[in-house]
Amino acid sequence: MKLKDKLRDLSAHKTGLLATNYYNLETLHGVLRAAQQTGDPIILQLTQSSIDYMGLNTAVAMGREGLKQFGVEGWIHLDHGGSVELAQRCLDAGFDSVMIDGSELPFSENVKITQEVVQRAKSYGAHVEAELGFVAKLGQSHAHNGFTQPHEAKQFVEETGVDALAISIGTAHGFYKEEPKLQIDLLKSIEAEVASATFVLHGSSGVPESQLRAAIQYGICKVNLATEIKNIFMKTLQDILTQNEEIDLRKVFPKATNAVTELVKGKLDIVNNR
Ligand code: 13P
Ligand code: ZN
Ligand code: NA
What we know:
There is one protein chain. Strands 1-2-3-4-5-6-7-8 form an eight-stranded parallel barrel, surrounded by ten helices. It has a single domain, classed as Aldolase class I (TIM Barrel). 51% of the residues lie in helices and 15% in strands. By secondary structure, it is of the alpha/beta class. The model has no long low-confidence stretch (mean pLDDT 97). It has helices spanning 3-12, 25-38, 48-54, 56-70, 84-92, 107-122, 150-160, 184-193, 209-217, 227-243, 249-271; strands at 17-21, 42-46, 74-81, 97-100, 127-132, 164-167, 198-201, 220-225. Bound molecules: 1,3-dihydroxyacetonephosphate (13P), zinc ion and sodium ion (NA). Residues 80, 173, 202, 224 line the site of zinc ion (ZN).
């Protein structure tokens, strides 16, 4: 199924779709085993840094083959695309979906760059996500957040024809110093204003379960998770390495991969409303 149709379908049923970032074969397989065990679909996403790290075609091939190998329904998505050129490279490489992140640009420039990517994505039949409002990036102050305004969201979606919109309702990338407070009333207003796009929650790591469930109940459909995956993978690896001197990496990595699987299974239960 096309990602756009899947998100619309799920959104109508007040259910979400988990979008997880992957960094290497181990984190990819950790995520895929979780989706295989729960039977849920999943979005596999790559940032520019992960693309640079693995190589574009290698990263896509790993994702595609992984979905086949584990028998999981899924889509490959560019996370936080910073330019039309990168989005174009990803479309050419066979991505199902691309995000163009103009969230730090003035409204009219964000509209312009998003229109350009929507136009290019058409002939590929690819799905496009944009961001309006600002969700603080890793290392940026959470005070930098700028909530999405419902009337602007309506205008933005009408002018761009974008499929999915990342909105700022109180999350931030990375972990939180203090528990986040998602603005569910704001989400409800955005949902009431904007009829023709689905909504994306960035910065889901560190968001308490009850707030994630509320966000999905009131209109969030795609839920982005990255930091918690990196964290559990590396913390588990660090523990193993301090405890023994095994040098066969094929014996060491699986424990960290399994930790990712357990984490993601828990998130899949939340996002799929179980
Ligand atoms: P976290 O790192 O907070 O999970 O956010 C992930 C994200 O939004 C990826 O786009
Ligand atoms: Zn994000
Ligand atoms: Na977060």
